[in-house]
Amino acid sequence: MNNLRPVGIIGTGKYVPEKILTNSDLEKMVDTNDEWIVSRTGIKERHIAAPDQATSDLAYEAALKALESAGMTGSDLDLIIVATITPDSSFPSTACILQDKLGAKGAAAFDLSAACSGFVYGLATATSFIQSGMYNNALVIGADCLSRITDYTDRNTCVLFGDGAGAVVVGEVPEGRGFKAFDLGAEGAGGSLLQIEGGGSRLPASAETVENKKHYIYMNGREVFKFAVRVMGTATVEVLRKAGMDRTDVDLFVPHQANVRIIQSAMQRLELPEEKVVVNVDKYANTSAASIPLALVEAAEEGRMKAGDTVLMVGFGGGLTWGASVLVW
Ligand code: UT7
């Protein structure tokens, strides 16, 4: 990416719904307890969308803040990418709904399906479009309403997920700054470890699919855990290699917020001290595509990066997929 137009993040915003679901609330719903949830995952609470809020509503709030912080309005955008596995409906895309609400007339708009890796996939896509000269200003959003696809009678999954949205404006930045490398990948063979089986063209929604709970997330937690620990390590090493950097260059590590134990294993592998790692899984749980942007934007709001800092984002999830990026802030 060396001789290309420098592209980076020029605006940030986030949104989480007001309602908080705590571990003690969940103790009243399923056979679980705060001690199990905190010790196995690090999660204490999560935010849940109101009944009248859909993914585009969360994304819209985050997008407004990102545009404001970039000093832009919707009409400045020429591309909108929404990474999500919980679009408002199968189609039109959530990105098209936003394009209208934001007044981004003429902007291209599409959703991107790469589950928890979706935001990093979206950043890579937007960066490529801008570097090629095809577009100038892109809005990239990770937004999910996982509460809508979570079975609140299944303790294996319902303690893990939350709702939220994080948005960034991607555009040209001064020389020396911006994205230095991406590493995207997939292992489709592991797709059935984390999926929603029903509601698509293979198993269309029916009374039977609903009765069999095929419209909810299924996850083989142990296998996904092993995959996550493996690819968090390999993807970070690979993206640093592509950027011509090593682990000592990393000023801030922004991992997907699924489980604090997965984050700790990556910290150990990279020998990163706590102050260089963003962890907010305790407050928001796993918000899928929103997880990395929520962590990134929160870190930015807390003043944890300064111009010139090297930020490494890495995510993994359904697909199975992974995505990592090196960004000079
Ligand atoms: O972003 C998408 C990617 N997803 C992930 O990153 C998730 C990756 N996986 C994980 O984070 C972990 O595997 C989990 C948090 C899902 C589970 O932790 P674990 O240490 O792998 O636990 P386990 O699945 O091995 O289950 C241990 C025990 C089981 O009981 P038995 O069979 O040993 O008697 C479970 O039934 O814990 C039980 N258990 C629970 N107990 C209390 C499972 N869920 C709960 C619960 N409360 N909520």
UniProtKB/TrEMBL annotation:
Residues 110-188 form the Beta-ketoacyl-[acyl-carrier-protein] synthase III N-terminal domain. Its EC number is 2.3.1.180. The keyword Lipid biosynthesis applies. It holds the Pfam family ACP_syn_III_C. Pathway: Lipid metabolism; fatty acid biosynthesis. The keyword Aminoacyl-tRNA synthetase does not apply. InterPro entries: ACP_syn_III_C, ACP_syn_III_N, FabH, Thiolase-like. Its main location: cytoplasm. Residues 257-261 are annotated as: ACP-binding. It is an enzyme of class 2 (transferase). It is found in: Cytoplasm. The active site is at C116, H256, N286. It catalyses: 2-methylpropanoyl-CoA + malonyl-[ACP] + H(+) = 4-methyl-3-oxopentanoyl-[ACP] + CO2 + CoA; 3-methylbutanoyl-CoA + malonyl-[ACP] + H(+) = 5-methyl-3-oxohexanoyl-[ACP] + CO2 + CoA; malonyl-[ACP] + acetyl-CoA + H(+) = 3-oxobutanoyl-[ACP] + CO2 + CoA; (2S)-2-methylbutanoyl-CoA + malonyl-[ACP] + H(+) = (4S)-4-methyl-3-oxohexanoyl-[ACP] + CO2 + CoA. One of its GO terms (biological process) is secondary metabolite biosynthetic process. Homodimer. The last Arg residue of the ACP-binding site is essential for the weak association between ACP/AcpP and FabH. Belongs to the thiolase-like superfamily. FabH family. This is Beta-ketoacyl-[acyl-carrier-protein] synthase III. It comes from Paenibacillus silvae.
